[in-house]
Design brief:
Low-confidence stretches: 17-22, 168-176
Distance between the termini: 19 Å
Helix content: 10-25%
CATH architecture of the largest domain: Sandwich
Number of domains: 2
Structural class: alpha+beta
Shape: globular
CATH topology of the largest domain: Immunoglobulin-like
Number of helices: 2
Number of strands: 11
CATH class of the largest domain: Mainly Beta
């Protein structure tokens, strides 16, 4: 009975190690108006055609043709998504070539490292890195922009942004995959040894 108690105590300890590790959650934040910052201080900006670079209405971080900004979060970001709401009737995201093409890139800003974009809905844009190792990591500099088909109303436009973060480290699962079988083997050996030991 004592061996069984030890087995369950060790199993509980292994599970506690897993549960005690901080969970990684997607970073969701909201914005409205003409400009603002993300939760880590990176600026964002809507630009209408009367003041925008090349006359293209867009949303950008820090703003289209305004350089780069820095990601000061603590988790690596695998996917970046923006959902825009309360746009004027008929205004949607645009990807008309050559100047109305969405873009996102992370330092060193090579052309081959441009993030890919998709439109899950006409007013939602999602950026994904070209390869698994080109995530947006803490302290990385980056830029992004998303053009629209026409001007937006700064008084009503708003959005929900999501930074999809990396999953929990595989090392945690690997550790448990090793520890729990070892605990079970140790338990079985103790029971077998007890069974074959000569009686007093």
């Amino acid at each position: 009975m004592g061996n069984l108690r030890v087995f369950w105590l060790l199993t509980f300890a292994c599970l506690t190690v897993l549960w005690a590790r901080p969970a990684r959650a997607d970073i969701v934040w909201l914005g409205s108006g003409e400009s603002g910052t993300d939760p880590f201080g990176a600026p964002w900006l809507f630009q209408n055609s009367d003041t925008a670079f090349q006359g293209v209405t867009s949303f950008g971080m820090p703003g289209r043709a305004m350089g780069q900004t820095r990601y000061d979060g603590t988790e690596s970001v695998l996917v970046v998504q923006f959902e825009f709401f309360d746009l004027p009737t008929g205004v949607v995201l645009s990807d008309f070539l050559p100047v109305n093409t969405p873009a996102m890139n992370v330092e060193p800003f090579l052309a081959a490292d441009l993030w890919q974009y998709t439109f899950p809905t006409p007013t939602t844009i999602r950026f994904t890195p070209p390869t698994a190792d080109r995530t947006l990591d803490p302290m990385d500099r980056f830029f992004l922009f998303a053009p629209f088909t026409d001007d937006v109303n700064f008084a009503t436009v708003n959005f929900r942004a999501t930074y999809f973060t990396s999953i929990p480290e595989p090392g945690t699962g690997s550790m448990l995959a090793v520890l729990i079988p070892l605990v079970a083997v140790g338990y079985r050996r103790r029971v077998r040894k007890k069974m074959i030991s000569p009686s007093a």
